Amino acid sequence: EAKRDPGTSYRFYDRQLHISAGYQLRLETDLRNALRGGELELYYQPRIDLATEEVRGVECLLRWNHPERGLVGPDEFIPVAERSGLIVPIGYWVIEQACKRLQECTELGFPGLVFAVNLSFRQFHDRKMTETIFRIIFNANVDTSLLELELTESAMMHDPEYAQRCLRELNQLGISFALDDFGTGFSSLSNLQHLPISLVKIDKSFVQELGQSADAEHIIRAIISLAHSLQISVVAEGVETEGQLEFLRQQHCDEIQGYYFARPMPWQDLVEFMNRRNQSACLQK
Ligand code: C2E
Ligand code: MG
Ligand code: MG
Ligand code: MG
User: Fold this and answer.
1) Sorting pLDDT into bands at 50, 70 and 90, what band is 240?
2) ipTM
3) Which residues belong to any copy of the EAL domain (predicted)?
4) Could you identify the atom of ligand 1 that is nearest to the CA of residue 123?
5) Is the beta carbon of 240 within 6 A of some atom in ligand 1?
6) Are 66 and 38 in contact, with CB atoms under 8 Å apart?
7) Is there an atom of ligand 1 within 6 Å of 96 CB?
8) What is the pLDDT of residues 174-217, one digit of tens each?
């Protein structure tokens, strides 16, 4: 197989590329319309505090209700949105929407819920990032200490100085930051202490290898102990089993997020989920 005629494989590759370029363009046009046409929606996945078992917050996760293709997940369209730059306006829409829901939470009787929003590296190319986010949260009049922005290490790579300045300015407004997918990048761990990061999220790939790989255990232990020594909290992502949960509890992981507790869900389902939990908490008292 490896010794296939190079001419043939080139043509094959070329055709693949061609299809994929056309597909990309179509996706990009559709996505532009989706933002205008209200086809984008946020799903919310609860994050549970391991010590108190309370819902500490929710991560806002983008979904696209495509008129023909149904519900499309972010792994399919975020890369296109990033390449085209559309992630910039989409990203602001996400923050606006999250702020709206944050306000509603107070009215619904679950105050203090943290709303976490993902930021793409590409949003740090926007020179008006801080200004725009400031305007959004000012207009929404939300408690900024309940707003958390998740970024990956790649966000800092294009222009580290600018990115750090954005983080500091937003942090001064009360917004906190989480480092997402932690462990998968090239984190120089010492970098953490120079940034206003209050949380790291252990990537789900490590959590899902628990019980199958001793390395995963060592890595998770090391991340938790390093983070804690820097006064940084730890969330484990992708927790699906009791066994994973128990290991994380023993390691004093602060919070967990995963299908074991709840999947990402539409806003109405989250409201019901929260009401159910509040009710059973009252019964226990
Ligand atoms: P992420 O920020 O690391 O989000 C966590 C992902 O893990 C979500 O996938 C969530 O549904 C999934 N997940 C949570 N618990 C489990 C579990 O127990 N098992 C498994 N298998 N998966 C679990 P989702 O919603 O498909 O999002 C994928 C990625 O898309 C996100 O990864 C994030 O990088 C990106 N994304 C989502 N929404 C946004 C957004 O508004 N803006 C930007 N820039 N990126 C976004
Ligand atoms: Mg995230
Ligand atoms: Mg993640
Ligand atoms: Mg991710």
Assistant:
1) very high
2) 0.98
3) 24-278
4) 44
5) yes
6) no
7) no
8) 999 999 988 876 666 667 778 899 999 999 999 999 999 899 99
